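Q: How would the structure tokens look for this protein?
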Amino acid sequence: MTIRILLIDDHTLFRSGVRALLLRQPDFEVVDEAADGVEGIKRAKQHAPDVVLLDLNMPGLSGLETLQLLVQDLPGTAVVMLTVSEDGDDLTAAMRSGACGYLLKDIEAETLADAIRKAAAGQPVITEHMMTKLVERMRRPTLQPPVPRTGGDSGEALTAREQEIVQELGRGASNKEIARALDLAESTVKIHVRNILRKLKMTSRVQVALYAKEREGFLGGGTSQGAADE
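A: Here is the predicted structure in token form.
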């Protein structure tokens, strides 16, 4: 399967270099590129790519603002931040805004290619160094303890099976891995994930993964109850 990619970055030379690297992969197609957020959103709507590689710091419409509009208008597109920023606040803001990943620009070419394939498959991708920062931020003693809940603001509760899937998403598992772990059809997992996003009023599985990590210990695993809720 060919993975269709859009590049949004204000540095022409960087875009050219990334394009050249990606085109070496037989399963990648760079459908277009843009130098700013406004043009990037326009071209994303035109091409509906599988993956968008998006710079964080751009003049005019920022990368974060661009991300939020892309997630809103193209929920089926995985947006991966590709940036020089190692700031934990930038990382957290991007993840909470619906980014599928956060990669640093000094990443190796093969690592970038693997990350794009994972993002296209719906898996979160975060540079290892930044993942460490994210975990550290979650463990800060100054943070208030998570409030136990199993549903979104609508008050609609997650079923026991959905709680199990949220836990798996928190571990970074793909739909296929979740299906194998819980002995479900992959199509069933997809339906559950859609229901979870709706109930929690979230737009991406990365947000659900963060939700799960913040509430570890509050989400109980389902057993026979979960099977009955499938």
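The radius of gyration is 18 Å.

The domain at 3-137 is CATH 3.40.50.2300 (Rossmann fold).

Upvote if useful.
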